[in-house]
Amino acid sequence: MQRVKTLTSKTLKNTMKKGGCGECQTSCQSACKTSCTVGNQTCENQNR
Amino acid sequence: MIHQYKSNGYNIVMDINSGAVHVVDDVVYDVVADYESCSRDELIDKLSGIYALSDIQEAVSEVERLKEAGELFAEDEYQDYVIDFKKRQTVVKALCLHIAHDCNLACRYCFAEEGEYHGRRALMSFEVGKKALDFLIANSGSRRNLEVDFFGGEPLMNWEVVKQLVEYGRSQEKEHNKNFRFTLTTNGVLLNDEIMEFCNREMSNVVLSLDGRREVNDRMRPFRSGKGSYDLIVPKFQKFAQSRGTKDYYVRGTFTRNNLDFSRDVLHFADLGFDKMSIEPVVASPDEPYAIREEDLPQIMEEYDRLAREYIERQKEGRGFTFFHFMIDLDQGPCVAKRLSGCGSGTEYLAVTPWGDFYPCHQFVGQEGFLLGNVEEGITNTAVRDEFKMCNVYAKEKCRNCFARFYCSGGCAANSYNFHGSITDAYDIGCEMQKKRIECAIMIKAALADEE
């Protein structure tokens, strides 16, 4: 690609297969307590 | 769905359904904008007055290749998945323990009304806290990581019980194959060496409340006497932050209409030596003079842009810091199940009052219609719990077609309720700020990727 720099090609739909384990942090327990900030949480799935 | 924007010299194209993010040149940027509504010939015709034919053809080919790879114009395949997902048995994995409904500060914007949550002053007993931890263990299914935040009011006003509960939680880990992650949210007034040492051993994260510059902080975070808290607290927080080692901390502030130039407060934190911080917009009734108004949004947007540029500069100079709302994990971020279901309030996450009542989250505490049960009987109000279980991005009209839906996951239910009387609506001013922060966070990734 000459004209495109891809920062991530992550296809979210692949995470439907093994996602949902729930081991990740609850967003409001991290720092916010007043906004919902999910996109910055880290995945902790061991079997991803 | 595509979201495209220009920021700080970067042309950014986000493909919402796949999660792909691209930085593109001007030709591709314009091709993407009209790709779905125009044929190839129409595109060439439309853009030929601006770009050379070969450039347009090349750009169209690149867009086509990305589309074939599922990285542009990907379909939304999650609407049915969310229904299956929501039928599942939920487990509880996080508690916000209101260890003290009392406070030694009198912050003017406090949603807990100076710590008392529309009720009476109270401290949680060890017995109530122990039952809450037992409830969490018993209702957490196979989840190993359990989160417990000591919250208030001010939790250090009931410090002995905090220590006893940490000790009790640790004593249960092995038998039940659980790992407690304790956190503490404090205003710092009562911090001392003993408390810091204990927290550095036991608390995976501490959230340190401070609003920024002295005059900003002291205006909104005074003692009950009216005296400011900055001078007492800042040296303690600096010492605490430096002693955290590998464990996390966040200096966390609230900005209001009084300091719409809040980027200066973030940078003030950095200049005080903190490197992990968050500053969040106040959530307040619109009739409060310090509440953020719609007319403030242009200035707030400008402020986020200014902060983002400075964030990049400092990063490049080797004196970078972490701003909670600019953190974004594009590669190892949450799965779609998490992104759809949001914060988990009322299902995975509960708040516990000093006397053992359960609420969907700390912001609902004291609103009797949201009382879910208690530590003795568990969840008894299953109707409210089920309402929260169904609270996801597709249940919200405003979110369904919003580019930010997989990043904010539908936003805060409490904010939605406070402004619209429904947990499946959205707090519109909050949404605008959230969208801006996501755009800034991605632009920062683009700028830092340029450096590599």
Flag low-confidence runs of chain A. none
Number of helices of chain A: 1
If interface size is counted as residues with C-beta under 8 Å from the partner's C-beta, which chains form the largest one? A-B, 43 and 88 residues
**Could you give the distance between the termini of chain A?**
29 Å
**Roughly how many Å apart are the termini of chain B?**
29 Å
Biggest β-sheet strands, sense, barrel of chain A: none
Task: Give a nutshell description of this structure.
The complex is a heterodimer of chains A (48) and B (452). Chain A is low in regular secondary structure and 48 residues long.
Write the layout of secondary structure elements.
The complex is a heterodimer of chains A (48) and B (452).
Chain A: E1 4-8, H1 15-18
Chain B: E1 2-7, E2 10-15, E3 20-24, H1 26-34, H2 40-47, H3 53-68, H4 79-87, E4 94-101, E5 122-123, H5 126-138, E6 145-152, H6 159-176, E7 179-186, H7 193-202, E8 203-209, H8 214-220, H9 230-242, E9 248-255, H10 263-271, E10 276-281, H11 297-316, E11 322-323, H12 336-341, E12 349-352, E13 357-359, E14 373-374, E15 378-379, H13 382-389, H14 397-400, H15 405-408, H16 413-420, H17 428-451
Helix pairs in contact in B: 1-3, 2-3, 5-6, 10-11, 11-17
Protein name (chain A): Putative ribosomally synthesized six-cysteine peptide SCIFF
Keywords (chain B): Iron, Iron-sulfur, Metal-binding, S-adenosyl-L-methionine
Domain Radical SAM core (chain B): 89-322
Protein model, in words:
Chain A is low in regular secondary structure. Chain A has one helix at residues 15-18; one strand at residues 4-8. The longest helix of chain A is centred in the middle third of the chain and has 4 residues, at 15-18. Chain A is flat. Among the domains of chain B are: 2-75, no CATH class; 187-327, Aldolase class I (TIM Barrel, Alpha-Beta Barrel), CATH 3.20.20.70. Chain B has 17 helices and 15 strands. Chain B has helices at residues 26-34, 40-47, 53-68, 79-87, 126-138, 159-176, 193-202, 214-220, 230-242, 263-271, 297-316, 336-341, 382-389, 397-400, 405-408, 413-420, 428-451, and strands at 2-7, 10-15, 20-24, 94-101, 122-123, 145-152, 179-186, 203-209, 248-255, 276-281, 322-323, 349-352, 357-359, 373-374, 378-379. In chain B, the strands form 2 sheets. In chain B, strands 4, 5, 6, 7, 8, 9, 10, 11, 12, 13, 14 and 15 form a 12-stranded mixed β-sheet that branches. Chain B has a 3-stranded antiparallel β-sheet with strand order 1-2-3, with helices on both faces. Chains A and B meet through strand 1 and helix 1 of A and strand 3, helix 3, strand 6, strand 7 and strand 9 of B. Strand 1 of chain A pairs antiparallel with strand 3 of chain B, so a sheet runs across the interface.
